[in-house]
Amino acid sequence: MSEKQIVVIPGDGIGEEITAAAVCILKKAAGKSGIQLHVERHLAGGAAIDAYGLPLPDSTIQAAKRADAILLGAVGGPKWDGVAPEIRAEKAILGLRKELGLYANLRPIRVAKALIEFSPLKPEAISGVDILLVRELNGGIYYGAKNEAAVVNGVEQASDLEIYSTPEVERIVKLACQAAQLRRKQVVSVDKANVLASSRLWRKTAQETAAQYRDVTLSHLYVDNCAMQLILAPKQFDVIVTNNLFGDILSDEAAVLTGSIGMLPSASLGDGTGLYEPIHGSAPDIAGKGLANPVGTILSAAMLLRYSLGAEEAAAAIEKAVDQVLVQGYRTADLYKPGSTKVSTEEITSLIEKQL
Ligand code: ATP
Ligand code: MG
């Protein structure tokens, strides 16, 4: 048995319920793969504002840095909407990303067979879609110099600067290629190299970097074409890698194709400990009622096993168990069925027991 340290940050709202469900499944799957997990709970977001007066206490940062991986529920909620901007609950996530040097956001876009009816696409278009979207998280136009609106030569104008350096592009493309090696080995790099200088550097660097991965095929798409292809023929994609701005937009577009936001996981990876969380928020309207869909967090735990603990078999077993439980009809209210967090979790756990 190897031993690994996991920091769990439940956060706020439904965070407590969904992380409890996911930890239970994570422990089971890891144990079956010969990994013993030590789980430490830490506060962030609104819960930390209540306890310490700030959203990301130093004790949480230090524990996160020491851990092998972090599982997070969700932070924020109306209770803390009135706090000062510098201590907003959402700052906890931004702070963790910065402290841990997490420069890549990974979002798998997969639709469980049983949920194809929820997609806005036709069944034949969405069935079998399995995309991994890799978004650069630390650079680009969101971080470049900003000139707020000001009057110049009699007209008001404003600007945002987009800068990417070769090392920034190299590291994200490397990560995308490595992720592709665990999948179908095809990377599409998305840019706007016909009009943007930063995109031309991106494309050249992507080409040079991917050449080091002989088993991986790289191709390029302009972002406008990619946005269209995601709707018209999403099955063509394996891994998509793109910059911060394009990734922000394309990841929401791709997520909505699945029709069920409560189901989708994410990973933030980089220099330090990997951070795993569902893409939905803290859903304060249903918190504490045992109604939350735990699947987004459970699939985040599967990503944690795959990318931070190298336990591919355990990760795949969780994903398969989730698919089967949905086929059996165990669902929560977000999928128009009066189910519960507890029943979904117990069914998934018992299937993992059988598989591994
Ligand atoms: P944030 O700003 O934190 O992203 P949000 O306002 O965008 O939050 P969510 O918290 O994601 O929204 O919730 C949006 C709606 O989806 C709510 O009605 C919520 O109950 C529902 N919802 C979100 N996650 C889940 C889940 N895991 N299970 C069931 N319903 C959910
Ligand atoms: Mg939201």
Structural summary, described in words:
By secondary structure, the chain is of the alpha/beta class. It has two domains: 1-105 and 261-356, Isopropylmalate Dehydrogenase (3-Layer(aba) Sandwich), CATH 3.40.718; 130-257, 3-Layer(aba) Sandwich (Isopropylmalate Dehydrogenase), CATH 3.40.718.10. 41% of the residues lie in helices and 22% in strands. The strands form two sheets. A ten-stranded mixed sheet has the order 2-1-3-12-11-4-5-10-8-9, sandwiched between helices. Strands 6-7 form a two-stranded antiparallel sheet. β1, α1 and β2 form a beta-alpha-beta unit. α1 crosses α10 (295-307). The longest helix is centred in the N-terminal third of the chain and has 18 residues, at 15-32. It starts with a strand and ends with a helix. Residues 14, 74, 76, 262, 280-283, 285-286, 292-293, 296, 332, 334 line the site of adenosine-5'-triphosphate.
